[in-house]
Amino acid sequence: MQLVTEDNITDLAAARWATAHDPRTGELMSALVRHLHAFAREVQLTEAEWMAAIQWLTRTGQISNDKREEFILTSDVLGLSMLVVQMNQRLDPRATPATVLGPFHIDGSPVREYAEDMSEGVRGTPLLLHGTVRDLDGAAIGGAVLDVWQADDDGLYESQHAEVDEARLRAKYTAREDGSFAIRTVAPLGYTIPMDGPVGELISRTDISEFRPAHFHVLLNVPGYRPLITHLFQEGADYLDSDVVFGVKEQLVVRYEPREGGTMPDGTPVEGPWFEATYDFVLQPA
Ligand code: BEZ
Ligand code: FE
């Protein structure tokens, strides 16, 4: 009989979990056991601290639902989401880099025409972002669908508005045959991640800034190319160097050119100030 001691428990538990029927599950679980035990040994985890952590995890599960994903947020603020993205998306340097998905993407956004406004009724400075979807050699990719979503001027996404039951600040734009696309919206603002749950409670006990720099999200899933989940950030925005979820990449920062009145490139008249930005998305073959 092998008795359990402080010295042998890690090997015993890792060996037990290595028996998982699927070999990869065995590898993941036994490595997880070894790293968790190493953590507990390194910090000399107390029973009270362990119980506090369990209760924090319980609250994180309890606050999550089909509209709120506090575990994704946890992974994001720990830098784990971005680490996993970087390890799995080692793309050609010519390709548009990937960044975190975040917890606010909603499937089935409405289809909008070239340059059609997706910001109906939401306050903000109009923004037209246009460009071309290309492959690594610069050739246009026609028909790519750009699934776009962003927060409003209160920093809230559609799923954070209990009273909103139609699509808000999200749309799918299809690139034309020559790869060109145009997204019309309002310029996004910086915002804070949800601070009213267990993640916010923990962050507020640190000097971590809870802000994300102004950005919108784009997802491109084009047959024959690697799916791309990314953001575009506004050049000069606050928090570019302190993004709470580590999502900023230099190649994703775009200049918003200030414009005044006149017509947008698709001929739509505009009154007052607006922004024009150009960006080409470059996809890597699958
Ligand atoms: C977002 O940009 O929507 C987001 C990403 C990670 C955590 C919270 C929000
Ligand atoms: Fe966002």
What's the mean pLDDT score? 95
- Helix residue percentage: 10-25%
Distance from N terminus to C terminus (CA atoms, Å) equals 53 Å
Q: Outline the low-pLDDT stretches.
A: none
Q: What is the radius of gyration?
A: 23 Å
For CATH, the homologous superfamily of the largest domain is named as Aromatic compound dioxygenase
What can you see in these coordinates?
This protein has 286 residues and is α/β, with parallel strands linked by helices. The chain folds into two domains: 1-45; 80-283, Aromatic compound dioxygenase (Protocatechuate 3,4-Dioxygenase, subunit A, Sandwich), CATH 2.60.130. The protein is built from six helices and 13 strands. It has helices spanning 9-17, 23-43, 47-63, 70-77, 80-88, 198-203; strands spanning 111-112, 126-135, 145-149, 170-174, 180-186, 191-192, 211-212, 215-220, 228-234, 253-254, 257-260, 273-278, 281-283. A hairpin with a 7-residue loop joins strand 8 and strand 9 (228-234). The model has no long low-confidence stretch (mean pLDDT 95). The structure holds benzoic acid and fe (iii) ion. Benzoic acid (BEZ) is lined by residues 73, 76, 100, 102-104, 193, 212, 245.
